[in-house]
């Protein structure tokens, strides 16, 4: 039972890869696999990609909760968990871009990717200097906000795949909600990135 949290985290990585490949295939970006796809197959890939994303996002809560509940916190789990989060978020953003995302999504998507890679580099450099960057509560909320916002964005991008009517009165409000959440996620992401940067700077000059 104590291996269950790590199994869930590993499953998140597998689901993230499946989600990205499904979205890439639906966009016609996988040579030999996505050539001349029927619309029904493309829609199916978009739906399964969203399902995989939602399941993977849910595991992000349960693996940490189970690790604490089962007293199964491990070094391997501590390494895998943030990797799983970043792979899922970055994979979803790249998959979203492949669907021809709207211009309003491009800037926050780029900012989130920039922050994630920057903080990963800070952690790597800091580890070599003996500097630890513990995950803050705001950073945990940041991940949750990113996942919720991306779920909305992927849903809006796959609107037709769910057989929903192309009614502006229905689709536009959902699009505004998705974009608003995504911009909010980008703002919180940048704030946490600045906090980690400042923590690292102070630790290195001491």
Written description of the protein model:
The protein is mostly helical. It has a single domain, classed as Four Helix Bundle (Hemerythrin (Met), subunit A) (Up-down Bundle). The chain is built from six helices and no strands. The protein has helices spanning 4-26, 39-69, 75-98, 103-128, 137-157, 168-205. It is globular and about 60 Å long. The mean pLDDT is 85.
Tell me briefly what this model is.
It is built from six helices and no strands.
Identify the notable features of this structure and list them briefly:
206 residues; 6 helices; mainly alpha; Four Helix Bundle (Hemerythrin (Met), subunit A); globular
Distance between the ends? 43 Å
Topology, number of strands: 0
Write down the domain tally: 1
Alpha carbon gyration radius: 18 Å
Query: Biggest sheet: strands, sense, closure?
Result: none
User: How many helical elements?
Assistant: 6
Order of helical and strand elements: HHHHHH
CATH class: Mainly Alpha
Choose one word for the global shape: globular
- Helix vs. strand class: mainly alpha
CATH architecture: Up-down Bundle
The average pLDDT value, as a whole number, equals 85
Topology (elements, then pairings):
Blueprint: H1 4-26, H2 39-69, H3 75-98, H4 103-128, H5 137-157, H6 168-205
Helix pairs in contact: 1-2, 1-3, 2-3, 2-5, 3-4, 3-5, 4-6, 5-6
């Amino acid at each position: 039972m104590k291996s269950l949290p790590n199994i869930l985290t590993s499953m998140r990585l597998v689901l993230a890869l499946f989600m990205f490949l499904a979205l890439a295939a639906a966009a016609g970006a996988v040579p030999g696999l996505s050539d001349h796809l029927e619309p029904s197959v493309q829609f199916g890939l978009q739906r399964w990609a969203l399902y995989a994303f939602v399941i993977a996002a849910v595991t992000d809560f349960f693996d940490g909760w189970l690790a604490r509940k089962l007293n199964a916190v491990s070094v391997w789990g501590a390494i895998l968990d943030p990797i799983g989060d970043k792979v899922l978020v970055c994979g979803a953003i790249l998959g979203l871009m492949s669907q021809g995302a709207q211009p309003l999504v491009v800037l926050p998507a780029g900012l989130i990717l920039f922050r994630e890679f920057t903080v990963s580099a800070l952690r790597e450099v800091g580890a070599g200097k003996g500097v630890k960057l513990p995950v803050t509560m705001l950073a945990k909320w940041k991940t949750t906000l990113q996942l919720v916002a991306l779920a909305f964005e992927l849903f809006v991008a796959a609107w037709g795949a769910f057989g929903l009517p192309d009614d502006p009165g229905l689709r536009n409000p959902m699009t505004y909600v998705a974009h608003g959440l995504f911009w909010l996620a980008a703002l919180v992401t940048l704030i946490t990135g600045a906090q980690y940067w400042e923590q690292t700077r102070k630790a290195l000059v001491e």
